[in-house]
Amino acid sequence: MPEIENCIFCKIVKGSIPAEKVLETEKILVFKDISSKAPVHLLAIPKEHVADLKGISILGKDLFEAIAKVSEVAGINSTGFRVVMNQGQDAGQEIEHIHFHILGGRKLLWPPG
Ligand code: 5GP
Ligand code: ZN
Q: Please, are residues 54 and 37 in contact by the beta-carbon 8 Å criterion?
């Protein structure tokens, strides 16, 4: 599995940084965000280091299947949830390993600001 040195999410995949895992498949990992912005705040990532949407290709399907699954596991499927991807500076992206935020468990403001 290609990994990038100093990438926090690659380290979580490898297990050298702990995370509260919610779902793991061959290609995808979903874990709790360390600084949750909602009662449920999960991050879905490809295990392989993909920097942005251009590299996501077929993994997109696996990611969205995992998101659908964890929304059930986390009990937010019926009440609703939001999936967010921050790309680049204007969106406030901090970690350059592609990730989708899954937020739920409360009424979410729109637009997010
Ligand atoms: P971004 O701003 O790049 O879209 O989001 C990065 C997210 O990763 C943030 O919500 C932040 O709280 C989360 N995060 C940063 N470092 C860690 C970590 O070491 N563990 C976990 N579980 N989440 C992290
Ligand atoms: Zn990475």
A: no
Active site residues: 99
Which pair of tokens denotes residue 46? 């490809």
CA 100 to ligand 2 centroid distance, Å:
14
Q: Give the model's pLDDT for residue 2.
A: 66
Neighbours of 99 (CB within 10 A): 24
Question: How do the domains of the chain map onto residue ranges?
Answer: 8-104
pLDDT tens by residue, 34-65: 999 999 999 999 999 999 898 899 899 999 99
> Could you say which DSSP state residue 18 is in?
-
With 60 as the cut, is the pLDDT of residue 5 above it?
yes
Q: Which CATH superfamily is domain 8-104 in?
A: HIT-like (3.30.428.10)
Ligand 1 pocket (Cβ < 6 Å) reads 8, 17, 19, 31-35, 43, 86, 92-95
Give this prediction's pTM.
Answer: 0.97
